[in-house]
Amino acid sequence: MATTHHQRGGSRPTLRNEDLDPAITEVSRKVIGCAIEVHTAIGPGFDQSVYENALSAALKRDGVAHTVGHEFPVQFAGQRVGSSRASMFVDDKFIVSVVADEREVSGFARSALRAQLRCADLGLGLIINFHRRRLKDGGLVRVLNPDKIESIRGDHGDHGDYDDYHDDDHD
Where are the alpha helices (DSSP H) in the chain? Predict the structure, then answer.
C-alpha cells in the first residue's frame, strides 16, 4: 500500500518496506547494517573505491552474495548499445551505488540509478554516500523503479518517481 508524503516540495507516493519483497527487504537491511558499520569504523573522507572494498568485505563476512563493478547491458530497439556499471549488484536482487561526495545525493544520481534499475528490470536500488557525517542524515537513499513496482502490484497509473532519503528503519 503506497502512502503519500511531502518531500522537497512535492507530493509523491512512498512505498514502505512491507510493499517490497520480504527477501529484498531483508538483504537491503543487511547491506545498510554493513554500510553503517563501515562508516562508523573508517568515517568519511576516503575515495569511493575504499568504501566499495570495505563494504564488499563486510558483505562477504556476513554471507551476502554480491558482485562489485557489475555491468548491466543497455538495450535499445532490441540491440545492445552499451553497458552501465553498478558499484554493487547484491544477491541478484538490487543495485547499490556507492558514492563518496561531499554534496547531498542529487536528483541526477537518483535518476541515473533509476535508469540502471529499468535496464536491469529491478525494483530497488540504494545510494550510499559515505562522505556524509552520519549516513542517516542523507547518506542512505532508497530508489525504486516505478515500472517494476507497478508491474508487481498490477498498478499502471503514473505515480511519478519513487525515492526516499533513507531506509525506514534507520531514521
Answer: 22-42, 48-61, 107-120, 146-153
Q: Which of 122, 69, 62 lies closest to 97 in space, CA to CA?
A: 69
**What span, in angstroms and rounded, lies between the C-alpha atoms of 8 and 110?**
14
Secondary structure class of 62 (helix, strand, coil): coil
Helix (H, G, I), strand (E, B) or coil at 170: helix
Kindly report, residue by residue over 69-100, the tens digit of the pLDDT.
999 999 999 999 999 999 999 999 999 999 99
- Return the amino acid letter for 47: D
Q: Do residues 113 and 95 touch, judged by C-beta distance below 8 A?
A: yes
Give CA separation, 101 vs 46, 56, 64, 129, 144, in Å: 10, 19, 25, 7, 21
3 state SS of 146: helix
pTM of the model: 0.77
What is the predicted pLDDT for the residue at 153?
Answer: 56
HSE, side-chain direction, 13 A CA sphere, residue 127: 30
